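Journal club prep — side note

Before the paper discussion, L.F. wants everyone to see what a predicted structure for a comparable chain looks like in token form. Sequence:
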Amino acid sequence: MLREIGEQPATLAATLDRYVGPDGFRPDVVAPIRSWLQAAGGQILIAASGSSRHAGMVAELTIEDLSGIAVDVEYASEYCYQSERAKRTAGVLIISQSGETADTLAALRKATRAGHPTLAITNVDDSTMAREATVSFPTLAGRERAVPATKSFTAQLLNLQLLTLLAAESSGQLDPAALKDQLAELALLPSAIERQLQGWMNATSAVAAQYDCARNFLFLGRGVHYPIAREGALKLKESAYLHAEGYPSGELKHGPNALVAEGTPLVMIATVDRAETSSVERYEKVVQLMRDMREQGADILAIANTADDTVAGLATHTLFVEELPEALLTISEVVPLQMLSYVMAINNGIDVDSPRNLTKAVLAE
């Protein structure tokens, strides 16, 4: 798992090289994806499970925000039993690391029978889903041996960000100059993560030692950071066997706050893209919630921008990430959460690569 966490800069760079050239998207490579977007008719349904569904939840927000295309995210296991009446014209996107996950494959086959154009994001180019979907849009994470998804998850987020840009281009919401700028920002992402890896490992090792006695965690995030909070909680569950739940930050006071007490740390994602007004608004609300929780006596582990003294002054512990555009922050900020789960699992004597009761690909519902 640790090796695969460390491989993420290289796998992200490989994906970018596959789909993006010096002059923008490689036309021959992305042509089938552009055709799928046209066939989707302005409506996309995403079906996935586990970490892949969290990636889909990020895509729901980024695609809708940038392109105006309506997106709905379903658990693959639930989509199989839903009526098609409201989704007759939607393009169906399925996401799976293995391309063999039983419930996601069933969702793909249901969509195919109903006549939907389908797009498969998988990490295995010759998987069943890649073969059966109308269009295959593979990640280039390479074989992932550890059961907890790390490099495959960030690879999915990157593919979905590329899809977001293609959707915005297709809907006329992103002109060529703006598209070029966004692709240039993406090109800097692998090196940004690379230079932070060692610092994150040192910081998460120190933080994990402070939580040796904690057995319950609440992860909180707003907007696109909420699915990352859920992913952080899932990693801690499956890797370290600790109870963790992910919630939207604004929902904490609607019930979950009853769980906030000594021994239940809050992991709060408090990053911000200061160039985006809506991101600043979300950040300010998170900071206010942090103030409220500190008054309540909460132990807060914050994920914050480098040199953010406001958040660091309110948090008990802080893990810093360099500032990036809002959509790219999700790919960066999840890495220290992966490391935190890894270190806590190792500290608890757990075989982090093969957690109990779990398999790499769920081949039966």
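L.F.'s comment for the group: The two ends are 25 Å apart (CA to CA). Keep this in mind when we get to the figures.
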